[in-house]
Amino acid sequence: EARLRRRAPPAGGGHGSLLSSQERSVRLRRWYELMMENKDELARIITAENGKPLKEAQGEVLYSASFLEWFAEEARRVYGDVIPASAKDRRILVLKQPVGVAAIITPWNFPSAMITRKVGAALAAGCTVVVKPAEDTPLSALALGELANQAGIPAGVYNVVPCSRQQTPAVGEVLCTDPLVAKISFTGSTATGKILLKHAAGTVKRVSMELGGHAPFIVFDSANVDRAVAGALASKYRNSGQTCVCTNRFLVQKGIHDKFVEKFAKAIERELHVGSGFDAKTTQGPLINEKAVEKVERHINDAVSQGASIVTGGKRHSLGKNFFEPTLLSNVTTKMLCTQEETFGPLAPVIKFETEEEAIAIANAANVGLAGYFYSQDPAQIWRVAEQLEVGMVGVNEGIVSSVESPFGGVKQSGLGREGSKYGIDEYLEIKCVCFGGL
């Protein structure tokens, strides 16, 4: 706490008071360029500390850098407003100003991109940040700090506070309760998000939360099966199933069910390869720790005990305790744990349904709503389902929805606010009304 007090500038300040919007833009752009110049080394750091395949890590670095590029451009587009006043002797102006010090708390599954998506917006707005990276993956945050320094980001603007697993709750509490901090941005589990919200309530901080998901992936009878299988493979098994927007429940209509399961199983066995992230052939690295593996096992055992069938996979891989085989289950019901909880691992459970209404009801039964996907070639059905799914992001005939231009976030207990896109910078700005009288 003392360290935070020494390093954090006063609330309401930030490097917005030190640098013009153009200067912020130039330095964020330079930070982006340095990430691109060092992209291979940054990717190796991600694979070393997170375990994801090097090709995926390289993709994350490009994705991560793109947020610095995007918000370098947005820094110069923070526009105010002039509002016509009802009184002739008044003028009403609207200013947008940085909220102040922003505490950034990030997860291990995207140890670089989850930082830049928040920090790029915060710095573009004129805020300073204190980044608390996940205890499993602090090196990416520190590497970004070194490049920020090289890019000319002023000292004290981008701060990193790594800590152990044991100290994480205490550090999180300080960041959420200290009056010097004006804003909390967190990506992680819903349970942890609720704790941080309680802490932040004491000083009524601005908060944005990107929390857990339970994404449905619906395949209707009209779908192109081959495209649905390709989308399912990408959506489910990226980062070994350890992303917030990974599909957690596959809902497949009765008429197409058997064909989809058969083709999906063949695609898993043909295209997915478990191994070290540094092996070029690997598509599936290890899970983050043994606790994550145990959860996958628990979900599989529960489903099988209630009548589910293992189509492929189903057990730990021979490579080591944190490696797990990509798994596909059929004959799954909504009473099974794997359809009630987010697995966060390489497990794909398939539920058979009969009607569109039934699929929507199952999909929306969750108390979270981050991403949802569906495949259909019926235009009317596409409009109906896209509007009815209770999620923040919908993939229509597409298994990957994230991009720098798109607003990222969820509804219900999946969070508050949006990141990326033209909306992302608003999370770090306060709106001030200025009324000029006596004119």
UniProtKB/TrEMBL annotation:
Q: Which of the seven top EC classes does this enzyme belong to?
A: oxidoreductase
Q: Does Secreted show up as a keyword for this record?
A: no
Task: Offer a single GO CC term for the protein.
Answer: mitochondrion
Q: Which GO terms describe its biological process?
A: gamma-aminobutyric acid catabolic process
Q: Which GO terms describe its molecular function?
A: succinate-semialdehyde dehydrogenase (NAD+) activity
Task: Note the InterPro entries from the entry.
Answer: Ald_DH/histidinol_DH, Ald_DH_C, Ald_DH_CS_CYS, Ald_DH_N, Aldehyde_DH_dom, Aldehyde_DH_Superfamily, Succ_semiAld_DH
Disulfide bond found in the keyword field:
yes
Q: Which domain of life is it from?
A: Eukaryota
Q: Where in the cell is it found?
A: Mitochondrion
Q: What is its EC number?
A: 1.2.1.24
Q: Catalytic activity, per the record?
A: succinate semialdehyde + NAD(+) + H2O = succinate + NADH + 2 H(+)
Could you list this entry's UniProt keywords, alphabetically sorted.
Disulfide bond, Mitochondrion, NAD, Oxidoreductase, Phosphoprotein, Transit peptide
Gene3D superfamilies linked: Aldehyde Dehydrogenase, Chain A, domain 1 (3.40.605.10), Aldehyde Dehydrogenase, Chain A, domain 2 (3.40.309.10)
Please state every residue range assigned to the domain named Aldehyde dehydrogenase: 19-434
SUPFAM superfamilies assigned to the protein according to its UniProt record, in alphabetical order: ALDH-like
Residues of the region (Disordered) are 1-21
Q: In which pathway does it act?
A: Amino-acid degradation; 4-aminobutanoate degradation
Q: What does this protein do?
A: Catalyzes one step in the degradation of the inhibitory neurotransmitter gamma-aminobutyric acid (GABA).
Record family assignment: Belongs to the aldehyde dehydrogenase family.
> Subunit structure, per the record?
Homotetramer.
Protein name per UniProt: Succinate-semialdehyde dehydrogenase
Tell me which species this is from: Fregata magnificens
Q: What is the lineage of its organism?
A: Eukaryota, Metazoa, Chordata, Craniata, Vertebrata
What's the gene?
Aldh5a1
